[in-house]
Amino acid sequence: xxxxxxxxxxxxxxxxxxxxxxxxxxxxxxxxxxxxxxxxxxxxxxxxxxxxxxxxxxxxxxxxxxxxxxxxxxxxxxxxxxxxxxxxxxxxxxxxxxxxxxxxxxxxxxxxxxxxxxxxxxxxxxxxxxxxxxxxxxxxxxxxxxxxxxxxxxxxxxxxxxxxxxxxxxxxxxxxxxxxxxxxxxxxxxxxxxxxxxxxxxxxxxxxxxxxxxxxxxxxxxxxxxxxxxxxxxxxxxxxx
Length: 241
What we know:
By secondary structure, the protein is an alpha+beta fold. The protein is built from seven helices and six strands. The strands form two sheets. A four-stranded antiparallel sheet has the order 2-1-5-4. β4 and β5 form a beta hairpin.
């Protein structure tokens, strides 16, 4: 009986320790889950506060690539007859080092006034694009509508487009690294960490340039690590040749 009692006691102690360990693990995991949830809520909350971001991306879109996928009737402002755009401003995007804010709450109107749209169409050639960029990205800048589109223009004007890409009348075949180098050669204030090239298949989509809140060149965050992997890069000519 003594031996049975000792065995039972050991077994009970073992079970008790296992229960305590399981309880400790459960509550530790639960506490970690709560911390992660709180952290996620804080990040989500931060992600939607106007003016709270780390840097801007100036996205310069190659208009002929876009228009090659659109009918002129559907996008007449950008892709219609005689619309000979090359690089245009897709947007000026507030970014976090990882991720980005969008659709932030704002007291500014959702609709961009027609007079401001008309002033902006030379660099962002679409009513729809201008409205979309304000509603999704501009509202997160902390600026009013005029301030935001003025900032986009200032950012654009600070970048020199290499001469060979100003209005090509024939297809250009190059590489992502050569395109990037052309921008670096034309803009001595930039270095390789500040610029990214994106493509779809082999067609150039965008050149993205990272800037601080005061629109000075800045190294990009992790969002711009996903770059064009194609060995060759094709730039369709401007529409109308």
